[in-house]
Amino acid sequence: MQPIARDRQSPPVNGPATGALETNVQPRPPARTAGAEHPADCPLSIHDMTVAYQRRPVLWDVEYDAPAGKLIALVGPNGAGKSTLIKAVMDLVPKASGRVTVFGEPYRRQRRLVGYVPQRESVDWDFPVSALDVVAMGRYGRLGWLRPVGRADLEAAREALDRVGLKDFASRQIRQLSGGQQQRVFLARALAQDAQLYLMDEPFASVDAATERAIIEVLRAMRAAGKTVIVVHHDLETVPEYFEYVVLLNMRVVAHGPVRDVFTPENLRKTYGGRLTLLEEAAHKLAKRDAPV
Questions:
Q1: Closest CA to 216 of 224, 118, 65
Q2: DSSP type of residue 101
Q3: Alpha-helix residue ranges (DSSP H) falling in 150-234
């Protein structure tokens, strides 16, 4: 993978990544005035970030400041760059350009403040460790290199498992757990870390109803504790129910802000183009919820 050489005045000639609609690429937002900075206390600030694979742009000039203490949905079509954005923030994929800060500092300096829940499909579930072992890994950032996991850390891991309803599965090998249980284990690992900013890549994907309810209850508890949670989410119908803020992404940020203001049919069309059946249903549900009684 090599970064692309960019013409700052025009969109990439290669067009968007698979699934992103070229006709939906939005005009570049106005540049910040000289000396303007992102808020130093902002949980996550992304400035002018571009990411490309094999010289093919996936994200282009992304600009975003995440509000503190909110549940934020990151929404967009397949191939729009949602997972890539999360990974680029955490330096898991290289950026062609741009700057990312976590509470005013580069991610590498604030790593301990960021909890990450990856897509379940990206994990090797055959690795021979127990659920408690996996959750205890969330404490490593606090321990530092070569320091053993202590009693207090194991207790924090057990408490995190209890919060996601898996206290009785602590000694179970992760490969013996169901898909929903495995997803809860990784959520518990993030809880054990006790971070301030959480990045979650489709935690609701392919889980049963009980797991989905357990996850959203945990997310709401995290918000109540002042945490900022950004979730890659694919179910448009539950966006108004689960989240306060939304980021609509299709290679660039189409719109972001409170769900009530931003999650509109017009913005959804800009984000998804002609794929409107589910979008109309989601918009209708949102309008019905907000209608006066």
A1: 224
A2: E
A3: 151-163, 179-193, 209-224
Percent of the chain residues past pLDDT 90, beyond the cut: 55
Instruction: For residue 198, count other CB atoms closer than 10 A to its CB.
Output: 25
φ, ψ dihedrals at 8, nearest 5°: -70, -15
pLDDT tops 90 at residue 24 = no
- The amino acid present at 86, given as its one-letter code, is I
Whether the predicted pLDDT of 270 surpasses 80: yes
Task: Determine the Cα–Cα distance for residues 2 and 55; give it in Å rounded to an integer.
Answer: 6
Contact between residue 64 and residue 259 where contact means Cβ atoms under 8 Å apart: no
- What's the average model confidence in pLDDT over 107-130? 84
Sign of CA dihedral 285, 290, 292, 293: positive
Identify the H or E element spanning 198. strand 197-201
Cβ distance 240 to 216 under 8 Å? Answer: no
**Are 199 and 102 in contact, with CB atoms under 8 Å apart?**
no
Q: Which of 203, 219, 217, 206 is nearest to 86 (CA)?
A: 203
* Token pair of 51 as six digits: 């990411």
